[in-house]
Each structure stands twice: as C-alpha cells, then as structure tokens.
Amino acid sequence: MRIIKIDNQLVKPIYKQIVELVEQGIFSRELPKNYQLPSINKICRANGISRDSVLLAYNELKKKGVIYAIPGKGYFIKTQAINYEKKYFLLFDELNSFKEDLYNAFLDTLKKRAVVEIFFHHFNLNMFKKIIHDANGSYSKYIIMPSNLKGVEKVIAVLPAADVYILDQTRKSLSAYPGIYQNFISAMYQSLQAASKQLKKYNRLVLIYPGQKEPLGMVTGFNKYCNDHQIDHLVIRSFQNHHPEKGTAYITPSDRDLVDIVEKTQQLNLRIGKDIGIISYNDTALKKVVANGITTISTDFRLMGSRLATMVWEQEINKIENPSKLIMRGSL
Burial code of 45-72, b = ≥16 C-beta within 10 A, e = fewer? Predict the structure, then answer.
C-alpha cells in the first residue's frame, strides 16, 4: 500500500500534502496505532522530492502528537484519537449585519465539511499581527480581510502563500493571492451613473468619507464621476459639524452619519428625496423602511460568502470581483 503519493499539480506545499495524507489514513483507519510509516528516503525516492519536505512534514506530525519516532527504527502512528477535518482560519475586520450574512453563507455552502474559526482584528495592525502569528501552521486555509490596514503585506507573507485567500478589499501589493473582492471604484462610479437621472435635481454631491475603515476606492470613483459629469462636489470626513443643505445629495458609507443626516433633516423640516438626497452603503433590512426607503450601493454579501466557500473548498486560484449595484428607493 502506497500511503504517501504527492500530487505535483497541486499548489499546496509538499509537506502539507504529506501531513494531510497521514491524517486522512488515520481517520479512515487505514493506518492503525503503532503502524510504521515509510522512511524519509523511501518517500523521497517514490515521489522525487527532497528530504527537507518529508522531514518538515514528519516533524509537524510529531508536534501535533500524531506520530512518534524511534531512533534507528523509524516513524510510527501514535494515536487514532484524532479528528481529521479541514480547518479554515477566517479573519474579519469587524462583525456587522452584512458581514454576518457573508459568514453564514460561507458556513451554509461548506455544509459542515470543515471547521471554521473566525477572528476579528478591529482595524488594529498589532492585533492583526498577533492573530496571524498565533494562527500560522494550525489551519489548512487562511482567509483574510485586510481592509485598509497599512503594512499587512509583511504579516501575511509569513503564511504559506498557497493557502491564503484575500477577502473583500484587496490592493496591488496583494495581487498574488486569490480571493473575492469588491471593486469600490467601479461600484461607486457605476451606481452614480445609474442614478444620474435622479441626481440631476441636486446642485451638489457630498461624499462623507471618514477614511478610518472605508476603502479609498470610494473616493476615487466618486471624484471621477463628478469630474466626468462636471458636477459640483465635496468630500468631508464627518457630518457631525454640518447641517443638511437644500439641493445637496449626500453619499455616506457610515451608518452613524446616515442617522445624523436623517435626524438633522427632520429637525430642519427638509424633505428627504426632494430637498436633499441620500445614498447609503451596504443594504440592510432597516434601510428598506427608514425615511421612505434609503437608496443604497451594495454588494451581495451572501453571494460573496457562498462563492468564497466554493473557491476555498475546491482550491481555486482565482481573483473574482463580487458585483455591486444601486438599489433605488425614496431617499433619492
């Protein structure tokens, strides 16, 4: 029985293939307790691989308590009390209603075929580093939402590149990794283009861009649309010290700013959708009913989660743009 047969077509590192093959053999009961594994030299000759790869795999299996070594004799199965399952590491920036939709769709599509452990870095680079450092070597796949954090490239580089997927926000410096992402430049531009008829009744467009969590692509797409159509426009950091101005349409990624705009508009007896316009980011059930319906620019987070699960499970090496669209409601 040939226990370890390397597939050179896989992008997965050889040592990880060896680890998984041994664990699969134990889980399927093909490798009983105290069974002697093939020697390092034998595996090398049979597969045409280096000793370093086999030694790395056996050392990892020893650390996990799966095998033991007897000097001069070889390597043996230590226990059958292992639960061999694929373990996926999922690092989000934060949890909100749309990220929850993504996560649930990811789990639903996997159908309990893998263990998924989720972590949150909360836009903190030090926390991001610690979580990645602690997780390295413990998972079969690493799914990472880098958001707009600077300096993540060196941190992610410590992980096995073949097992990393980038989620939601990406950048040129991470283009070597597969993943599924939003194109924020295109989403902003195309959504405003779709709303051009409604936007004509407003004299100015204002993007409220806090810049702490939000992708810069939003600003790029906004400025490009306004410049291309010669529209008076402005980008501000917060709405806290502003008041709604009649004839202005506001675009806000932040739900806190959305609440502020709606409250101040009502206090000034201005009409949403007539005196001022509002476009929010990321659709939620509540936005369907607030202020006669809030117009949103939103991607399909459930589709993103489902597609991601398929991609990771089947080890696809793709970069997929998740579509976004404008959902027109009364606020514009």
Answer: eebebeeebbebbbebbeeeebbeeeee
Same fold, 14-77 and 184-299: no
The superfamily (CATH) of domain 184-299 is Response regulator (3.40.50.2300)
Residue stretches of the chain with pLDDT short of 70: 1, 11, 81-85
- In DSSP notation, 182-229 reads --HHHHHHHHHHHTHHHHTT-SEEEEE---SSS-THHHHHHHHHHHHT
Q: HSE of 139 in the Cβ direction (CA atoms, 13 Å)?
A: 28
Parallel, antiparallel, or unpaired for β 324-327 and 295-299? antiparallel
User: How does pLDDT run across 231-245, given as a tens digit for each residue?
Assistant: 999 999 999 889 999
* DSSP state, residue 36: B
Task: Please count the helices (runs of H) and the strands (runs of E) in the chain.
Answer: 11, 14
Closest by alpha carbon to 93, among 164, 167, 154, 160?
167
- CATH code reported for the domain at 14-77: 1.10.10.10
How do the domains of the chain map onto residue ranges? Answer: 14-77, 86-180+301-323, 184-299
- Residues in CB range of 24: below 8 A, 6 or more apart: 84
Tell which CATH architecture fits domain 86-180+301-323. 3-Layer(aba) Sandwich (3.40)
Residue 10: per-residue pLDDT: 73
Is residue 219 classed exposed, middle or buried when 0-12, 13-18 and 19+ CB atoms within 10 A define those classes? middle
CA-closest candidate to residue 60, choices 137, 167, 158 = 137
Count of other CB atoms within 10 angstroms of residue 116: 19
> DSSP characters for 151-186?
THHHHHTTS-GGGEEEEE---GGGTTS-EEE--HHH
pLDDT at 265: 95
